[in-house]
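Re: that chain you flagged

S.,

Sorry for the slow reply, it's been a week of failed gels. I finally had a moment to sit down with the sequence you sent. For the record, here it is as I used it:
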Amino acid sequence: MELPLHKDKYALFIFAYLITICHKCYGVTLVVNGYGQTLNTSGPLLTPIGQKQCMKECLRRGDCLSVNYWRSQLRCQLNPAVVGPGLALIPDSSGVYMEKSSQPQDLSTGPCSTISCAQTCTDLSNGGRTFCGPTVKASVDCPAGFLWRPAASLCYKATDISMTWSEADAYCVSIGARLAKLDTDAKINIVDSDYNGSALVTHQYYIGGSVVSGATSEWQWVGGTPIDPAFQTLYSLTLTDGQCLLWDLTTRLSQYACTFAFPALCEVPVTPVPQTTTTIPTTTTTTTTQPLATTCPSHFRWSATNNLCYFVEEINFTWQDAKTNCESMGARLAILDTAAKLDLIFSDYMSSLLLYWRYYIGGYFDDVIYDWKWINGSVIDPNHLMNYPVAGIPGVCLLWTDIDYLYDYPCDMVFPSICEIPIKGCPSNFRWDASLNMCYFVEETHMIWQDAKTNCESIGARLAILDTVAKLDLIWNDYMASTLLYFDYFIGGIFNDSVMDWKWINGSFIEPSYLMNYPVGGGTGMCLLWSDIYYIDEYPCDITFPSICEIPFSSPP
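Prediction finished late last night. Pasting the structure tokens below so you have them in one place:
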């Protein structure tokens, strides 16, 4: 299956990198002193971290005068100097250079600049909380330069130099490690994920398994532990002398002659860290129905086009903790169930409104029904997922990512997240026009006005109040686009005998200056229609016409 390449997005990314001279984030402008350049010096490294947070760290440290930042790696270097004698900018296509003295003062204000925190300081996008947490590091003694993956208690690094298996084994031992023992699905999943996240550059690596010859040959891990026969069967390993084990992107594990040259994965064995049990909802779990709100809080972001009210949480949580955090705000993990919503998050990412490149959202793999579900309990449409590299196994959850859009990772890994508050929106069988905030439905069945009124009410709507020229134009445009079958439709206006005046169906009087533009006289038993020629016309209410229904929709601010 061919995956979407989002070529237009990559073009936009390159365009932004070439011509942008400042980096905007939440109203604060970062001044970049050198694009495609970095300072030839050394300094403390922080990763993963966003560009804005990188500069914030420098601003609050007295010994930092500039930073080098690499977006593709989310890596920040805090420099104790700036360009000067003996220090110059060098070409670095993936990096940027920013000087502390060039940055606006408002970037350094707020809790993080005044708090006494010797660790990583993060200002949340809502401005309401401050998080002072450790620079990302292993909770065990995983050496610098190795990748620590707590979900599988795996501390490993890749060497991209091709070697025979024996040479790779000796190399790993020489750096205080061993060839990696990928003896669980969790570890293999981690390596798969790291490859897809660009932490690994080659699709095959030697690991620590080989056929050991003796009285009876057998597959063994380094250190002499036999490889579980069930594991061998799962990955179709054959017992052939002189064969060694590789991690393989396609088959996950494969075997080759040990004399072939491949790069390798080295591992430092660590004592497994007790993991907090992550409870993933299943079909036996009661799903809390999120009440529909009518307004979007000011510290959330509102997209009327997508009917999405959302908040980006930059603190890293497990999926379960991210779910709890969203619920504490009266929200839920975001259900990004359309390509348009995924595009919206990408647009925010490209506008630097997101600090990171992957975020938990409200999808998880339910191991009871063995299928993907949204956090509201509905099963995720397979046709939606088929466009993205999402496989699904127990214990994995969905993320939005900048490259793949949707991707699955173990739920007990920590990532930032996206929350949303469901807003009472326009049903999918209605038409939505964001510019007019109009949610409407065209009923082509002919009825008298009173029956049309009853019919609209039966679907939670009312006869449409077309009280502006723009709304009349909207119906005209639909008519010209052949989405209306007829040329006259009942709308929600009726002549009220008691007051001898026109009223809308909500009880308000129709402005006389509005009606004077149309051939409407009024009289007992008369109702309003939208007309292709006059826009507004009147006919007896007991004549049958098709009709236009609408759901009143108050757009969140």
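What I noticed first: The radius of gyration is 31 Å.

Talk soon,
D.
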